[in-house]
Amino acid sequence: MSKSSNKAKLAMAQSFASFMDSGSQSATVIFYEGTQPANPEVAADSNNALVTLTFPEPCIKQVTATYVELHPTDIATVIKAGTTTWARIYNGSGEVAADLTVGTDIALANTNFALGGSFQINSFKIRP
């Protein structure tokens, strides 16, 4: 498929969000420092994990004509100080759903995390 309609892309975004809800646990997103793996099949270095956020179930808040919005994550404590460069989303089964490059795929107000600080994602929109 070289080009998809906006409606088809939105359906894919909904399907992605549903994949996030699969499994017995809640979906999570872990923010890392350092070099992002070449693809989601490559294991992440747990020593580079800065903070783990958990989505509620179901994670889909609303579907609009242009995006799928997820509910805000919980508030989590930063376990390691550092500058986040990428994040990995895991579904409720612990399977990798996606890798996101900070600044390209995901925008953060502040990429420098302080040890013991609190972090939360208030707005998470998947755009086709």
Describe this structure in words.
The chain is an alpha+beta fold and 128 residues long. 12% of the residues lie in helices and 31% in strands. The protein is built from 1 helix and 11 strands. The strands form 4 sheets. The protein has a 4-stranded antiparallel β-sheet with strand order 2-1-7-8, with helices on one face. The protein is globular. The model has no long low-confidence stretch (mean pLDDT 91).
List the helices and strands and how they pair.
Layout: H1 6-21, E1 28-32, E2 49-54, E3 60-63, E4 68-70, E5 76-77, E6 82-83, E7 86-90, E8 96-101, E9 112-113, E10 118-119, E11 124-126
Antiparallel strand pairs: 1-2, 1-7, 3-4, 4-11, 5-10, 6-9, 7-8
Descriptive key words:
three-stranded antiparallel sheet; alpha+beta; four-stranded antiparallel sheet; 128 residues
Unreliable parts: none
Radius of gyration: 15 Å
Given the C-alpha coordinates, what overall shape results?
globular
- What is the end-to-end distance? 14 Å
Short description:
By secondary structure, the chain is α+β, with helices and mostly antiparallel strands.
